[in-house]
Amino acid sequence: MPKRILQGTVVSNANDKTVTVNVERRFTHPLLKKTVRRTKKYRAHDESNQYKVGDSVQIEECAPVSKNKRWTVVAQ
């Protein structure tokens, strides 16, 4: 099964080797037929601490790195 890749914006880099990425998805509401925006935050592994708040990044699924980290930053 292929690994999922999501695109989002870094909202926090306070922790060592970790960034928090805000990912937004858009979908049409089934009843109202209106476009709805939903956001979710993911913790991603950033080995070199190179990404800063506001950077646009892509994250990829990986094996668990810690209690909350199941994603790795792959590109900018």
From TrEMBL:
Xref: InterPro entries: NA-bd_OB-fold, Ribosomal_uS17, Ribosomal_uS17_bact/chlr
Keywords: Ribonucleoprotein, Ribosomal protein, RNA-binding, rRNA-binding
GO cellular component entries: cytosolic small ribosomal subunit
Keyword rRNA-binding annotated: yes
Biological process terms in GO annotation: translation
One Pfam family per UniProt: Ribosomal_S17
GO molecular function terms listed in the Swiss-Prot or TrEMBL record: rRNA binding; structural constituent of ribosome
Transmembrane feature ranges: none
Quaternary data: Part of the 30S ribosomal subunit.
Record function comment: One of the primary rRNA binding proteins, it binds specifically to the 5'-end of 16S ribosomal RNA.
Family: Belongs to the universal ribosomal protein uS17 family.
Xref: NCBIfam families: PRK05610.1 (NF004123), uS17_bact (TIGR03635)
Name under which the protein is recorded: Small ribosomal subunit protein uS17
Organism: Roseibium album
